[in-house]
Amino acid sequence: VLVTGASGYVALHCVQQLLAAGFTVRGTVRDKSNRKKDWPSPSTILIRAMDGCSFVLHVASPWPIVADESTVQTAVEGTMNVLRTAATTSSVKKVVITSSCVAVNDGHRSDSKVFDERWWTNLDNPRVENYARSKTMSELAAWKYWNTLDHNNRFALTVLNPTFIVGPLLSNVRHGSAIIVGRFMDYRTYLATPKVSVGIV
């Protein structure tokens, strides 16, 4: 199993559970000495990493606390690199993408709704932030590309849309959701806790 972004908060839990279940795991990570350094050639690295793998968990995706327009491009390109490589790697049977609920329920009126796979975030709403746009556009691009592949000779595709993810840290690096929780608990950042409700995984 290949896990992209294997040093990330969610991906580390995926790696841990896969190993416990007896799978052999490969992971893609950034340069330890320079976390901001980009891969020299994503396609080359993915081809080498994916070769011989039956399953791919694409967990890597940017989640800056404040997302700019580059977040959208990075997320879409990252997802497409994974899918294009999987399409040319004969061993790959299934790809699982970790998306987000914000690819589904953002930008709609606040009245009560039941969201399912037919719903997409309303990208025409100017209030939709770049992180939600990155997740929505990545998933839309993924399904569009997957539907162009030969139905008789393509990998299976699953997309997960979790809500706010919290839980134990498996590294000493704080990631997106852990940072947000930490800020609510740190009175130096927020002087009060707002009355909010959010789904939690």
UniProtKB/TrEMBL annotation:
Keyword Oxidoreductase: yes
Keyword Oxidoreductase belongs to the record: yes
Record Pfam families: Epimerase
Gene3D superfamilies xref list: NAD(P)-binding Rossmann-like Domain
Family, similarity comment: Belongs to the NAD(P)-dependent epimerase/dehydratase family. Dihydroflavonol-4-reductase subfamily.
InterPro entries: Epimerase_deHydtase, NAD(P)-bd_dom_sf, NAD(P)_dehydrat-like
UniProt source species: Angiostrongylus cantonensis (Rat lungworm)
Domain (NAD-dependent epimerase/dehydratase): residue spans on this chain: 1-169
Signal peptide (from-to): none
Protein keywords: Oxidoreductase
Alphabetized GO MF terms: oxidoreductase activity, acting on the CH-OH group of donors, NAD or NADP as acceptor
Name recorded for this polypeptide: Epimerase domain-containing protein
